[in-house]
Amino acid sequence: MDTKKIREWADKVILGLGVVLFIGIMIPSVRDSIGSGMNILMSPVLAVVGEQNFFLILSAMAIITAIYSSLIQKYVVDQSKMIEFQEKMKIFQKEMKEAQKTQNTYMLKKLEEQQAEIMQEQMGMMKDQFKPMFYIVLVSIPLLMWAYFYIGSHPDASIVFPFWGERNLSDTVFFMFTYWLYWYFVSSLAFSQVFRKLLNIRAAGM
What we know:
The chain is mainly alpha-helical. The chain contains seven helices and four strands. Strand 3 and strand 4 form a beta hairpin.
């Protein structure tokens, strides 16, 4: 079996596991099993850090997720293809703006025909960026399920937020979004932006 086939096989296995894990978290018994299993690994870490510093564990989880997801985006998504598409988009938008400004009907019609092709290409780019999500959940979901498991058994765990003051981690910020999830996602988003900038990772935006 050559390297290419091995890689394709590995991709299918990882994607399959990612899909199964993503679907599995919707089942309470699966969430509890993942959380309790991860607790065996995370308990020694928490013992070193201290339960009173649980927010540091959440921050570390956010950093790990940000680094891992950024690296996956960097090496799974074709960045040269992404850069080429973005340059193409800049030229298209510039020409469209100029054609609209000068009321060039011939150019506008030509660009409208080209727009359908660009939109199709963008959808393909977005699909390529969606694929790494199933790689990312292999790391992020077990960590999140552990946090969910731990906080469920420690309902008094709290964190001090800037401006908000001390808040119970299991309380709801809005809808079903709890404070611990809020802290995790905001931290992860912030660190992701930093790492994406450092690694020069592009997005398939218009």
